């Protein structure tokens, strides 16, 4: 839709957002917000129901778009991009009233007459901008959108241009289901996003990389707009000597190679001692074969790399260590086999940046002390994973490191607990969302004091 000169007379009402100048679009949504209808619980619930209906009625269309963009299997598309937002919506619908209830606080200060009360209430912010990435292009647009609507805001939703089929589909479908005076989809890349970022929003929710995160935050500073930055980074997995290696390898492989490794919370690399490393290498090769068969290129369950730029970046990392399994690649198909690398040095290319692809390096450390030092010498990760039966080890990982989330035993599963905040810290981002945390993110917590006049 972007770039095509559509006059307002030709533009179907449903596509009005895409044809409008950004300033007009934001002004229109702000007028809706000021009109007050987005504040009612009924309106919020209705929008969430409609979003849910879109997801259930277009599961197959979404799966087809996600297959075109990322070679996603139907199971992965359904699970991560349709069922995940549905669960989030259902949980929100069930608890929204309770989450929005004003909270009293104890009035402990002296000097207030009897009958005085104090508390907080959530106010919606106004017009929210949601900028989504390509790797889970539906989930990462729709879950923040649902949260912003549940909190009573109007929303400009900007899908990623690097997932063009999903972007086009959502730009067509969202206006068919949602209140068009409150939600608009703007497709496009850097120029369109830059034009949006010049506007004054009441909150900007960005998911993607730290370089663009800085651009977003600079633009937001002009208007003192608060931001949530959902970024990435290298999420380590520490495997202790006492861990069940077979089970650990199965869970690591499942998490790492989903979406061909293009998941922000995928385990980026493994830290373990030399003995455990040997056993883990064998177990990982077996786990990968269990998941994708002897030839993952022929497995419908295994995805593809999003584009040739990322394919070239990833294949340049394959020489960073000894190949335990995988290594095969095919540029025409944007295919890179699930790959495990051993004997990987801390200074090797694969350890210099977030991998964001199907390459799992194993870095050997002498013990837990060295693992903790290794983690703390680097940027704070979005997630840290531990595989251990040892309570003291768990406690040390929890208290001596900092990461957006910490998961023992099952990587990436913390995302599926909607009452847990999902977000990063330091280089992996700021702010959080999911469930009640989305309401907190997309609202202002207003302090209220009520003192009787009598
Ligand atoms: P991307 O290239 O799709 O970019 C994300 C968004 O930024 C897009 O909508 C894009 O149009 C916009 N954008 C790109 N350049 C811009 C610019 N110069 N100015 C303004 N906007 C611009 O996605 P990506 O950044 O490649 O995504 C991958 C990264 O995102 C990884 O680092 C990954 O870890 C991270 N990520 C984080 C999460 C999370 O929830 N924390 C989820 C997914 C991905």
UniProtKB/TrEMBL annotation:
Gene3D superfamilies, alphabetized:
Aldehyde Dehydrogenase, Chain A, domain 1 (3.40.605.10), Aldehyde Dehydrogenase, Chain A, domain 2 (3.40.309.10)
Q: Which branch of life, at top level?
A: Bacteria
Aldehyde dehydrogenase domain spans which residues? 5-447
**Protein keywords:** Oxidoreductase
Q: Which InterPro entries match?
A: Ald_DH/histidinol_DH, Ald_DH_C, Ald_DH_CS_CYS, Ald_DH_CS_GLU, Ald_DH_N, Aldehyde_DH_dom, Aldehyde_DH_NAD(P)
Record bears the keyword Oxidoreductase: yes
Recorded hits in SUPFAM superfamilies, A to Z, give: ALDH-like
Which Pfam families does the entry link to?
Aldedh
Active site per database record: 230
Keyword presence, Oxidoreductase: yes
Q: Which family does it belong to?
A: Belongs to the aldehyde dehydrogenase family.
Under which name does UniProt file this protein?
Answer: Aldehyde dehydrogenase
Recorded source organism is Streptomyces ochraceiscleroticus
The organism's taxonomy opens as: Bacteria, Bacillati, Actinomycetota, Actinomycetes, Kitasatosporales
């Amino acid at each position: 839709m972007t770039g095509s000169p559509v006059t307002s007379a030709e533009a179907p009402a449903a596509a009005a957002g895409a044809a409008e100048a950004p300033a007009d679009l934001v002004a229109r949504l702000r007028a809706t917000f000021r009109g007050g209808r987005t504040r009612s619980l009924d309106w919020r619930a209705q929008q969430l129901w409609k979003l849910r209906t879109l997801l259930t009625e277009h599961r197959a269309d979404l799966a087809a778009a996600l297959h075109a963009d990322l070679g996603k299997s139907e199971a992965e598309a359904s699970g991560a991009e349709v069922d995940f937002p549905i669960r989030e919506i259902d949980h929100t619908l069930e608890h929204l009233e309770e989450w929005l209830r004003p909270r009293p606080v104890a009035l402990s200060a002296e000097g207030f007459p009897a009958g005085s009360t104090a508390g907080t209430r959530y106010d919606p912010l106004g017009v929210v901008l949601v900028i989504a990435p390509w790797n889970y292009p539906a989930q990462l647009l729709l879950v923040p959108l649902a949260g912003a609507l549940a909190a009573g805001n109007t929303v400009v939703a900007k899908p990623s241009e690097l997932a063009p089929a999903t972007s086009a589909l959502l730009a067509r479908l969202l206006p068919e289901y949602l209140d068009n005076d409150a939600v608009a989809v703007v497709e496009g890349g850097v120029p369109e996003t830059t034009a949006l970022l010049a506007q004054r929003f009441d909150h900007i929710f960005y998911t993607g990389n730290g370089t663009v995160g800085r651009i977003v935050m600079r633009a937001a500073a002009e208007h003192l707009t608060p931001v949530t930055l959902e970024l990435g980074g290298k999420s380590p997995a520490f495997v202790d000597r006492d861990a069940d290696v077979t089970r650990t390898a199965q869970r690591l492989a499942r998490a790492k190679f989903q979406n061909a490794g293009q998941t922000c919370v995928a385990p980026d690399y493994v830290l373990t001692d030399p003995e455990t490393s040997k056993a883990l290498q064998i177990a990982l090769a077996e786990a990968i074969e269990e998941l994708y068969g002897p030839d993952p290129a022929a497995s419908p369950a295994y995805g593809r790399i999003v584009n040739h730029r990322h394919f070239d970046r990833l294949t340049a990392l394959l020489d960073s260590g000894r190949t335990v399994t995988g290594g095969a690649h095919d540029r025409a198909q944007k295919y890179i086999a699930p790959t495990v690398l051993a004997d990987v040095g801390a200074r090797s290319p694969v350890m210099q940046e977030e991998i964001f692809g199907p390459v799992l390096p194993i870095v050997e450390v002498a013990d837990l002390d060295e693992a903790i030092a290794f983690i703390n010498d680097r940027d704070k990760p979005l997630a840290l994973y531990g595989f251990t039966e040892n309570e003291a080890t768990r406690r040390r990982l929890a208290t001596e490191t900092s990461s957006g989330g910490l998961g023992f035993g099952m990587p990436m599963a913390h995302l599926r607990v909607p009452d847990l905040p999902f977000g990063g810290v330091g280089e992996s981002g700021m702010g959080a969302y999911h469930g009640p945390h989305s309401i907190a993110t997309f609202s202002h917590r207003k302090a209220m004091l009520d003192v009787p006049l009598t």
